[in-house]
Amino acid sequence: MGLAASAGRELMLTARKSDIEFKVQVVNQRRTALAQQTSQLARAFARAIYQNDDPGVLSGTIGALPGTTDPSLPQTPVPSGWYETQMSYVQALDKELELRDRELQTQHKIVETELDAVRKVIDKNIETSFKTLG
Predict the structure, then answer these.
(1) E strand or H helix at 110, and its extent?
(2) Could you report the per-residue pLDDT of 3-16, keeping only the tens digit for each?
(3) Is 111 exposed, middle or buried (0-12, 13-18, 19+ CB in 10 A)?
(4) Cβ of 110: how many Cβ atoms within 10 Å?
(5) Average pLDDT of 35-54?
(6) pTM of the full predicted structure?
(7) At 62, phi and psi to the nearest 5?
(8) Can you list the pairs that 110-115 forms with residues at least 24 positions away whose Cβ atoms lie under 8 Å?
(9) C-alpha distances out from residue 50 to 17, 24, 53, 58, 92, Å
(10) What domain count does the chain have?
(11) Residue 51 domain-assigned (yes or no)
């Protein structure tokens, strides 16, 4: 492979590496948002339990979640399985994002390895093509 072709390949691989790194950042931001959502769910559930005087709250239903303004959180009596259902949904989303992150990390390693190989080819090409006498 000629020097120009190798340099072009290096630029393409560098761009691909940057794209993958950006995608990893997006996945991590989404996982952070899910962690915040998990925290909101736990706070809302805890508020509903501790602000309710009904001793059977854990075995039956809980009242409206006080102080919640998030439209995705229920505002009416909630079955005791509500929290577990919401948490399992969030955990499933997080698992999906984790798998995507692993896939992107694998792609990143592959591109880095190929980029290192191309850089070695470029160095070798420069050494053989532009070597001075002596």
Answers:
(1) helix 82-129
(2) 889 999 999 999 99
(3) buried
(4) 14
(5) 82
(6) 0.70
(7) -110, 155
(8) 111/13, 111/16, 111/17, 111/20, 112/17, 114/13, 115/10, 115/13, 115/14, 115/17
(9) 49, 39, 8, 10, 28
(10) 1
(11) yes
Q: Hey, what are 24's tokens?
A: 């990893």
Of 26, 24, 36, nearest in space to 105 by CA: 24
Note whether 13 and 117 are within 8 A (CB). Answer: no
Give dist(CA 92, CA 87) in Å, integer: 8
Residues 78 and 48 sit within 8 Å (Cβ to Cβ): yes
**pLDDT exceeds 90 at position 34:** yes
Q: Is 55 helix (H, G, I), strand (E, B) or coil?
A: coil
In a domain, 134, yes or no: no
CATH number at residue 113: 1.10.287
DSSP H/E element including 61:
strand 61-62
Tokens of 69: 């303004």
SS (H, E, C) 9-36: HHHHHHHHHHHHHHHHHHHHHHHHHHHH
Report yes or no on 90 lying in a domain.
yes
